[in-house]
Design goal:
mainly beta, Jelly Rolls, 2 domains, nine-stranded antiparallel β-sheet, 4 helices
């Protein structure tokens, strides 16, 4: 009864203030993402948004659009790593009774067209969990996005709206515990539909009509006000709300996960350790390249910067001290290379080793004068392969090889242009748990092969895939 009275007072107060209009008028300009392509889809300003990249211990979740900050319960921790690998970049919710961020305001008018988006990482699946919702007063929520189970009992994502006879629930996609996904829900009364998107792709839709007399209430992250058992267990990031049904192309861009750099060797200088090993440090000290044979850094005619690594083809190579790539998921690797003279044999530029074969090798093939990439379908010497090739023009060239798990494709880029591509199914990808090699690959018995006679520079690796614009900027 007390809640009903309080609700009526707040509705009366907000009827004049129309907080969703205020949010639209006072939205802040979004900070550009370093992961966005240079030619981005036109961006609709959100009426309310929270990055959830606040520092650990912050008393509030700052709003970058709209007037409402988020008040965290004791079950929320700021400062976790976000979906693009940035830390801080997400808020963690422990799934308990105090696992919530309450904004104490109406973020968007859900009786009209609206869109909602959030990056989510569930720690468990197969149960109902609310990522974001706008509450009802004494009724069901104005909307909610989260996880549920489908009629067959399988984990699924969910977008829920009120209807005249109860609720409309749209489900689709498959949540994976410990994996980030971008959820978006769109309500479009012009078409009478509710649409659910996962990672930028529409996965489900249904007829929907939100009653015009739906009572609006506070926007909340991480819980269902009517059921603590539906609290979110995991992380949330980059919450956005719009007072329109935004274009599907914009949702696709929203769900694009930018590549996360995992290593970058500039090849400017080498260090000698106490045990006599010579190494090239990674720029952020995440890994080292061990110099083997006569491999060394030269400042004479470098490919880039003030130094390059020169190899003479007689057993020289570099090997990382950790595997910088999870080759079972989306990844990218690049290097600048210049061959010495006219090649008379095959020579490898990059490879990542498994126990019995290389997950990939990128080499120069002398028979047809091409750059040639070979990707094994299993960690076995006789495994099937996917192969790419493109002409080698000579001189200094920038090579990039990448695997897009979502698209089921591998691509070879040369000097910023897509040179070749081929299907490569997720079932063919596997994680090579040993090392990245530069200047050689591995024979079936594990011995080094195809040593490079040439210069190397600017070796980089990423988790995720790069856009054409990002590749052109290398």
């Amino acid at each position: 009864m007390a809640r009903t009275a309080l609700a009526a007072a707040l509705v009366a107060a907000t009827a004049t203030a129309t907080p969703w209009a205020s949010a639209a008028e006072n939205h802040l300009s979004p900070r550009p993402s370093i992961d966005s392509p240079a030619t981005a889809v036109p961006e609709t300003p959100p009426v309310a948004a929270w990055r959830l990249d606040d520092l650990n211990g912050s008393p509030r979740a700052a709003a970058w659009a709209g007037p409402y900050r988020g008040l965290p319960g004791s079950g929320v921790r700021f400062g976790d790593q976000g979906p693009h690998g940035n830390a801080p970049g997400a808020a963690h919710f422990d799934g308990g009774a105090y696992s919530y961020l309450n904004t104490e305001g109406i973020a968007v008018d859900t009786t009209h067209a609206f869109s909602a988006g959030v990056w989510v990482l569930p720690e468990v699946t197969g149960q109902d969990m609310t990522a974001i919702r706008q509450s009802g007063i004494s009724s069901d929520s104005n909307f909610s996005l989260g996880a549920t189970t489908d009629p067959a009992g399988h984990p699924a994502w969910s977008f829920t709206l009120p209807s005249a006879d109860g609720r409309t629930q749209v489900t689709g996609g498959t949540p994976q515990a410990g994996e980030w996904a971008c959820l978006a829900g769109v309500y479009d009364p012009a078409t009478g539909s509710a649409r659910l998107y996962v990672d930028g792709a529409q996965v489900a839709a249904a007829d929907a009509a939100v009653p015009e007399d739906t009572a609006l209430w506070n926007f909340v992250m991480g819980r269902d006000d009517n059921d603590d058992s539906k609290a979110w267990q995991g992380s949330l990031a980059d919450v956005r709300l719009w007072d329109s049904a935004i274009d599907p192309a914009e949702i696709t861009e929203l769900g694009r996960r930018g590549p996360r750099p995992t290593a970058h060797w500039q090849m400017e200088s080498a260090e000698t350790w106490d045990n006599g090993l010579r190494v090239i440090p990674e720029v952020d000290h995440r890994a080292d390249f061990l110099l083997n044979g006569d491999a060394d850094v030269t400042t004479d005619d470098p490919l880039s910067g003030t130094g390059s690594v020169t190899l003479d083809g007689d057993g020289d190579y570099l090997e990382s001290d950790i595997p910088p790539l999870d080759t079972g998921r989306s990844w990218a690797v690049s290097a600048q290379v210049r061959l010495h003279g006219t090649p008379d044999r095959d020579m490898a530029v990059l490879s990542q080793t498994g126990l019995r074969t290389d997950a990939f090798t990128l080499r120069h093939r002398v028979a047809d004068g091409t750059w040639h990439a070979v990707l094994a379908h299993a960690d076995e010497p006789d495994a099937g392969t996917t192969e790419l090739s493109a002409p080698a023009a000579g001189g200094t060239q920038t090579l990039l090889l990448q695997y897009d798990e979502k698209a089921g494709e591998v691509q070879l880029w040369i000097d910023g242009a897509l040179a070749d591509s081929a299907p490569y199914a997720a079932s063919d990808a596997w994680e090579a748990t040993r090392f990245l090699q530069a200047g050689r690959d591995s024979a079936a018995d594990g011995a080094g092969a195809h040593h490079l006679d040439g210069d190397l520079d600017e070796v980089r690796t990423w988790a995720g895939v790069l856009s054409g614009e990002e590749i052109n900027s290398l």
